[in-house]
Amino acid sequence: MPHIVSISSLKGGVGKTSLTLGLASAALYAGQRVLVIDMDPHADSSTGLGLPVTSVDIGSMLTHPEQYSLAEGVCTSAWNSIAAEQAPANVEDDAAGLGSVEAVRGSAASTALEHMEAGEELDRLVALLAGTVDDYDLVLIDCPPTLGRLTSMAWAASDRVISVAEPSLFSVAGTERTLRAIARFEENTDYSVGAASVVINKVRSTPEHSFRIDEMKSMFGELVAEPVLEDFDSFQRIQGAAYPVHFWPETSAQDFAADLSALYRGLID
Ligand SMILES: Nc1ncnc2c1ncn2[C@@H]1O[C@H](COP(=O)(O)OP(=O)(O)OP(=O)(O)O)[C@@H](O)[C@H]1O
Ligand SMILES: [Mg+2]
């Protein structure tokens, strides 16, 4: 069974999608086979992976589970041809061979799921993935910034939840809320998320950011993953080009990609 990892935060805009894409890129670079499931109705991961918009989306699959199997929605990311063009010069481990990223796209259709009766939907993603993801090394689920039905379905299917945080007062509070929500989820359902981690993102060299990082380390202890991720200027441009950061041709991305690889190895590998 692959690790199934939800990337969550009850606060918006902190970098859930960016971390999903960053970890997918690190896994691709390490020669792994990755499946990304885009649970956010805004479908930003789908855009960042350059997915075709014609495939069956995850919202339709989960709304009508009797009509679809997962395979009908799985499509190949545009990243694979970028990685293939650069191989074998630019892969971390030649012995592991070339990795791949596949994904099930998100769409606004999944908002309908947020209005289902509590409990009714919880095992739908679990059921969709059961027996069909064994050939992957890793499944990453990009979650919306709310604790609704979509996030609950994702957590039920996951063996790890990563909470993304910025080094700011409001994000520290948001991370506390997210970790409390995970504990409540485990108390109120038959599911355990297995492990939780906090990834600190968009870090700049300022006294305020240093203070907030120390604060989070004292509050969340060993849950805080290393290294923290810097606020990397070119990241939006790389995402806009639907490129995996590890294969970006400019050398300025190398340090950031190396930090993502270190996070990937510590959290998942
Ligand atoms: N480490 C980083 N360095 C620079 N920019 C970043 C970094 N992480 C994220 N960003 C940028 O911050 C913005 C928000 O990031 P992202 O969309 O990943 O957040 P999100 O948590 O998924 O948001 P939402 O809650 O809307 O789903 C994006 O423009 C992204 O490119
Ligand atoms: Mg997002």
UniProtKB/TrEMBL annotation:
Where are its TM segments located? none
Which residue intervals define the domain AAA in the entry? 4-189
CDD domains with a match to the protein in the record: ParAB_family
User: What is one Pfam family matched by this protein?
Assistant: AAA_31
Entry protein name: Chromosome partitioning ATPase
Organism whose genome encodes this protein: Rothia aerolata
Source organism phylogeny: Bacteria, Bacillati, Actinomycetota, Actinomycetes, Micrococcales
